[in-house]
Write a structure and sequence with these properties.
Length: 278
Amino acid sequence: MDRTELGDFLRTRRERLLPEDVGLPSGPRRRTPGLRREEVAVLAHISTEYYVRLEQGRAPRPSGEVLAGIAGALRLTDLESDHLHVLAGTAQLRTGLHRRDVRPSITALLERLPETAGIVMSAAFEVLAWNDLASALMEDFGALEPGARNLARRAFLEPDRPPYGITNGSEFRHHVVAELRVTLARYPSDPVVVGLVEELRAGSLEFARLWERHDVQAGTMLTKTFRHPTVGPITVDCDAMSLADRDQHLVLYTAQRGSRDAEALALLGVLGPAAAVR
């Protein structure tokens, strides 16, 4: 049970709610944002004293029934509720290291996909595998050291150069922070994950600010527009598929057939990785 993180998570979820969100009258002016602690306790059917101790990091581990009541009171999404159970120590933790080896069948699949740029990304945003079209669209990953293939570092530690010129960089950075918070809760003893979060908090004011929000859910990014140095802007559909057995994601970029974007993607397939030099 991570009492400090649990308390901070509960507080930030409580502060984002208005009384009318949960069917309560707004009443007189409030000195603090969001719901009051006693209101959450009433909605969750627990004592105010116990809920206050949870937020302060002083309470014993709550039961599954108590967590379910709190999740309902705070209107948590399924993902947020899962995160709550991880922080409370009632969910199975991955106490080892996150997987960075890719199944051979997945790497073979990447090479067989027509007109599709694809990468495999670890739980810590390191690009682990890619095909030639992905290298042409983004960068020649094979020419980089593993640490330089981390998309979180690219997003936050190079603020003057958005990753691959994507136009919705702010949305992507919010997504990165939310995903890394979930990853850190699952792998609290993984030095790579812990070190990455510490590096980003120290090196990026924006990351540090977003981290304090304790968000674990960001908007789904269904399309991305890359500002490519050779063929200009390319808007592609972005589909991420979970590889649950290794806690990785297969990310595929495709363009609508017959579109200018599809033609640009086809041209990159001919030009190869050298086209992505930035």
